Structure formats: structure tokens, C-alpha cells
Amino acid sequence: MSASSDLWRRPETGALYPLRTLNYAVAAALGALILLPVTASAESTLLLPRIEVVGSSEQDKARQPGAVGSVTEEDLELWQPLSTEDALRRVPGVHIKREEESAVVANIGIRGLSASDYKTLILEDGVPVAPGLFVGNGRYYNPRIQRMEGVEVLKGPASVRYGPNTIGGVINYQTRTPEDGVVVSGRVGSHNLRESTVELGGSAPSGDARIGAVVTWAESDGFMDKGYEMSDVMIKGGMAVGEDQWFGFKFSDYRNDANISYRGLFPDAYEAGAKFNPAPDDYFLTERQAFDINHEWQINDAARLNTVLYWSQMHRDYWRYGLVGGSPTTVVNGLTQWNYSDNVTGNNRSFERVGVDTRLRVDHESFGMRNETEIGLRYMDESMLDTRVQATRDQPRHGPVDRNESQTAQSVAVFAENRFQVTERLAITPGLRVESYEQRRDDQVNNANDGKSTNTELLPGLGATYQLNPQVQFYGGIYRAFAPPLNNQSIVTGVDQRLDAEESVNVEVGLRGGQGRLRYELTAFQMDFSNQVTPAVSGDLANANAGSTLHRGLEAMLGYDWDNGLFVDANLTYIPTAEYQEDRGSGINKGNRLPYAPEVVANVSVGYSSGPLKTALSANYVGEQYGNGQNSEDFVQTGIWGGRIPSYHTFDLTGIYDLSPRLSVFGAVKNLTDERYIGGLRQGIYVGPERGVEAGARYRF
Predict the structure, then answer these.
(1) Above 80 in pLDDT, residue 403?
(2) Given this model, what pLDDT does residue 538 score?
(3) How many CB atoms lie within 10 A of CB 299?
(4) Residue 13 pLDDT exceeds 90
(5) Dist CA 390 CA 402 (whole Å)
(6) How far apart are CA 606 and CA 626, in angstroms?
(7) How far apart are CA 579 and CA 593, in angstroms?
(8) Helices (H), ranges, 455-571
């Protein structure tokens, strides 16, 4: 890391943020926990309230009329992922565009949706984590895997309970629940990786209150010298109030100074095996704080009310060096490279969100059958300040501001869903979500861009499950999902573009179950994605709802455990259709395949578990894909690069061994065969991470 990364200054405030020391939130967490009775005589049984999209039991999964995926705490211990995206790679239907190993920027595709512009709702404990759902861009923040204990992935009609951006489904990261005591873990690895995590927890002797923290610090030179310095703190706690109410809270502070860029290698450098950072002076600086308050009230045996109030703020400062005009490339040691000028641009954005989400579930016997009714209300207020700073190499982090724009959005959503238990085997679940939002754009530099836009969407869904026998359940449904156009699409030069939301009618059918040591799930799906925002072809408007795509495919999962400790887990995503339904112009024609939508993605893990040892060899295959909608066979080296990206496969070997009830050691070899592959394209070629070796230990005091 260069010396300039030790300290950086936000030009809007002049505040200084040291990133080589643990931040104030670490001190706050440690101070709060010093007085806790961490040696309580009995382990706390208090479950902190939170919103779950599936639930933890097999019965919860069986109630969902759609495909369900999950990553358990045991999976995370075995796979040892470096990021949340690394954990999601093994979930059926999910494709990750790998840009760098720590996944600072989100690149998640589901069921043929482009991994560079996903339409999937990302939550953490039921709370949105994308910086902006109705403003800005949702890809700038990825929660850190070190504070997670599991991941839920929900598709199908049950998605109408959430929104927006549920076209691909819902991903819900679940944070760790504090446990009594102190746990210290750390790992080191290739590219000078150093990571340490401290988990602290304590509870009242009665077991009615608990508090804890997860504090992580990590630093790495990074593959291709794309280094980073990261600190992440989560403080979490709660208490029971009487016998029927529970409160919980969570505070998190995340900071990351990453030496990454939108620019990649040129083809000759990639073919030559180059491993240098193509943009060594570009930095992507992120900082985020968030606070949630949860309340659960068990009104009676048949009614429960869950409410969460949430707030977050985030800064994303992206400092990029410009290119020499007329000569954007140069040749160094026979390889084409970018030719950087002394001009530095700071594309800096800050976000703030406040919202409340409340959900009432009632079990009743109306209509002569068992019913499970859930109704909910959500209000959310979002804002984004988009500032551009023009700087120079001599003073790279401050200068005159030539863009200063505010985007705001207020949204209200209500939903209702009822699960009719028609017979002991058949359940039918209709639901309806109504989402209304207003977007505003206020340009302090060019008032002609000011304006507002409003819209209301009706999103019905209908699903069903049929339990054929204890080993087989059929499920299926149809629902409408939506993604709102962003402010800069809805309002152009002060003109309301009168855009409807982008919508998709999703249909899926499947079966799941298991017998003995066998478990399986198979889903067929279709997504008819319409109303996509495209350039207007005539009139006074710049944008129009004129695009559509069609997605059809299969997801399959199979697992089996043998008596001798061997086990296998495999999944396959097959998407023969992910194509444009009309000519878009500029070479994007009807029938072309969507970018970053491989036809086949497959994962197979073969492992062994016996006593203190658990190990697995995992294989990941990603089929051929395109980097642009033109489906160019050769690399297109203008703007956002395109071209055909060959298929690739990687192997990971991971293992964990418990030396004692308190001490565990673990290790991993990622990309075991050192496969060189293209992870993605943007302004150049992103090379997938090379072979990396990691080793670590975990000790519970």
C-alpha cells in the first residue's frame, strides 16, 4: 500500500480518517463489554429478534412456495470464504463476476440476470444494505463475511413480502448472535494477507439480556497488488421485557481503503501472464455506519408482531487518474498499458437511509381451515449526494467541485399474504404488495436537471406447496417483481421521463425433499422481464420503457452423506435462455445473450468428516459468457469492454481440525490448480485470483 493510503481527507468536510488503526467503534465495543459478566454461570438462551426471510427449521423451508437456498455456519467454517460473494458462489442459481478476492463491490447475478447490474434485493438481518434502492447505485457495499453466521436465499412468490429489486429474489445475510465468552481467530495467507477477528459476548445471570461484538481487521497486498485495509465492527445485543416482548439492537462500522479500479489489463498483457495492477494509483474508499433496533411482541399464542427501525450512512469516494488525451495507452516492456495523466477525479458519493418495517403474523381458523396471515408496512427515506472533485497528482485528494447533486426518494409499501392449509398436503398462498415512491433530483450546479417523479406498483403473487409424502414436496407459483428506475433515469434535464418500474413476471415449479441421508431440490423457472429502461427513440424524452428479456432454466441441488464420514454436495444451474426480446440498437439484437449470464454454472464438493476433522475438495465451473449485449467474439476495447469470456473451472481444498474443545486450526488452498481465467470485463480484463494459500486458528477462552 502506498503512503497516501495511511490518511485520507474527505473534501466536503475536511475530516481526517486514519485507516491503519482500529477506529472509534472498536474502542466503543471493547468499552461496552469490559463490564459484562462474560463468566456467567449459564449460557444465555435469549434469541435476539430479527426479520428472517425463510426461517431456521425444515418446516419453515417447507412453507415456502419457491426455491430456497442457504449457507449455514458449518458451511462457512468449512469453506472459509474471504467475502460474502465467495460464500454465495455455491448457491444454486447464483453467478458471481469475480473482480477481486475481497469483493468490495457487489457483482451478483441470479438466474441469468447480469452480474454487473443485478436486480436482487440484498438484506442483512432483514434490513436493506445496498447504499441506494431508489437512488444511486446499489453495488457499492458488500457486508463482511466475518460477522455472518449464515445466508438465506429466497425465490418464488414469497418474495412479494419484500422489495424492491426482487426480480432475482432475496438474499438475507444473518449476523452472528453473541455468545458468552471471548473468541479470537486469525489467518494469514498469500499476498501478505493478515486478518484477525475478536468475538466478545456476555449475558445477564438470568439469561434475559445479552450483548456482544465482532471486531475484524484485515490487510492484504492483494492479488495483482490490489491491496486493501479493512476494519469492521459490529456491536449487537438485546433483552427480554417481561415474558412476551424482546428488544434487540445492532450497530456496525465498516471502513475499507481498497487499491482497485474500473480498469483492467489489455489482451496482450493478459496473455503474457501479467500480474501488475493496471491502475496503481486509483483508490476506492468506503465507510459505512448503520444502526438497527428490533422489537418482537408475542401478542398471544396466535399473533406475533415484528418491527425494525433502521438507519445507515455511507461514503464512497472513488479517486481515479485520467488518461493522456489522444494517447490513452502506452507500451512498457512490450506490453500495452494505460497512459495516465496528472489529473485526478474524485467521484464521491454519500448516502443516508432511514426506514421502518413492521410485520404482523396471525394464525387463525377462518374459512374452515388453518391459515397463516402476514401483513406488513414499510416506510423508507433515502438520499444521495453526488459530488465530483477535480484534483491533480500534486494534491490528489482535494480540489474544485464541478458536480454537486442531491437525489432523494421516499417510498411506502404495504403487503398482505395468506397461506391457506387447504388439506393436510396442499397449501395455497396468495399475496399482494403495493409499492409507491417519489424521486427528486436537485442539481446545485445545473438547475435544469431538477425535477421529480412518482410511481405506484401493484405486485401480486400466488404460490402453492403439495406434500406428496414425507420424502417429496412439490411447489410452484407465479408473481410479479419490480425494480425502480434510478433518479438519473427518471429525471433528465428537469423532465419527468414518466417511467414505469422495470417489471418481471416470474414462474417456477419444483420439487424438494430427502430420505435418510439423501437431500435434493429441482426447480424450473421462467422470468419474463419487461419495461426495462432504454434510450427513447423519438419525442422529447431521453428514456423509455422499451426493453424486455426472457430467462428460462433449471436449478438442481443434490447431497448425500455416507456412514463412513464421506459426503458430497452438488448443484447445477442451467440457463439455456437469457436473451433480449427485441433489437436495442448499437449491435444489441433480438436473441443475443445477456452479458454475464453463463449457460452453465456447477459446483461439486466431496468431503470427509470424522471426529475433529472436516475437509472438502470443491470444484466450481462457470460456462462461457459475454461481456456485452452485442455478443462480440473479440474484445471490444472502447467504453465498457465487451467480448466472449471463455469458460473456466477452479478447485478449492479446505479443512478444519479441532485440536481441543477450545482450539481449532484451519487451512485452505484456493484455486488449487492455479487456473488463469477472465473473471470479468470493464475497462480492461479482470483476471481471476490466482492460487492462494491460507492458514489460521481459532481459540475460545
Answers:
(1) yes
(2) 61
(3) 13
(4) no
(5) 7
(6) 30
(7) 4
(8) 487-490
Query: What local confidence, expressed as pLDDT, does residue 110 receive?
Result: 93
Before 646, cis peptide (omega within 30)? no
Q: What is the dihedral of CA 493, 115, 415, 153, to 10 degrees?
A: -160
d(CA 128, CA 122): 6
List the one residue out of 531, 530, 510 whose CA is nearest residue 521: 510
Q: What is the pLDDT of residues 479-530, one digit of tens each?
A: 999 999 888 788 888 888 888 889 999 999 999 999 999 999 999 999 999 9
Of 339, 374, 351, whose CA–CA distance to 55 is shortest?
374
CA torsion angle 657 658 659 665 (round to 10)? 50
What single DSSP character describes residue 81? -
Of 12-16, 98-102, 292-296, 648-652, the one with minimum mean pLDDT is 12-16
**Distances from the Cα of 32 to the Cαs of 41, 179, 210, 335, 505, in angstroms?**
20, 15, 12, 54, 49
The single residue listed with the C-alpha cell 463412513 is: 564
Query: Which residues 6+ apart lie within 8 Å of 242 measured at CB?
Result: none
- Residue for cell digits 480540489? 399
Would you state the cell numbers that stand for residue 236, as one nine-digit string? 449487537
Say how far apart CA 1 and CA 226 lie, in whole Å. Answer: 9
Question: What per-residue confidence (pLDDT) applies to 30?
Answer: 54
Q: What is the pTM of this model?
A: 0.93
Which residues are CB-neighbours of 317 under 8 A, at least 6 positions away?
8, 10, 283, 284, 285, 286, 346, 347, 348, 349
C-alpha cell at 111: 438466474
Instruction: Compute how many other C-beta atoms are within 10 angstroms of the C-beta atom of residue 332.
Output: 10
User: What span, in angstroms and rounded, lies between the C-alpha atoms of 38 and 34?
Assistant: 9
Please tell me what DSSP assigns to residue 147: G
- In whole angstroms, what is the distance from residue 108 CA to residue 97 CA? 7
Query: What average pLDDT does the segment 235-256 reach?
Result: 95
Find the mean pLDDT for residues 161-168.
91
**What distances in angstroms separate CA 204 from CA 29, 36, 237, one per listed residue?**
17, 8, 11
pLDDT at 15: 37
Helix (H), strand (E) counts: the chain:
6, 39
Beta strand residue intervals within 77-167, DSSP E = 94-96, 108-110, 121-124, 127-128, 148-154
Specify the amino acid at residue 117. Answer: D
Judge contact between 112 and 174, C-beta under 8 A.
no
Q: What is the pLDDT of residue 43?
A: 52
E-state strands within 470-565: 472-483, 491-492, 495-496, 502-515, 518-535, 543-561
Among 329, 225, 325, 230, CA closest to 281: 225
Cell numbers 412439490 correspond to: 474
Q: Cα separations (Å) of 191 from 1, 76, 79, 101, 216?
A: 12, 22, 19, 11, 18
Amino acid code (one letter) for 323? L
Taking a C-beta distance cutoff of 8 angstroms, is the pair 414, 466 a contact? Answer: no
> Do residues 294 and 357 touch, judged by C-beta distance below 8 A?
no
- State how far the alpha carbon of 329 is from the alpha carbons of 108, 319, 325, 636, 684, in Å: 31, 19, 10, 15, 12
Query: Going from the N-terminus, what domains does the chain have, and what CATH number goes with each?
Result: 3-394+402-700 (2.40.170.20)
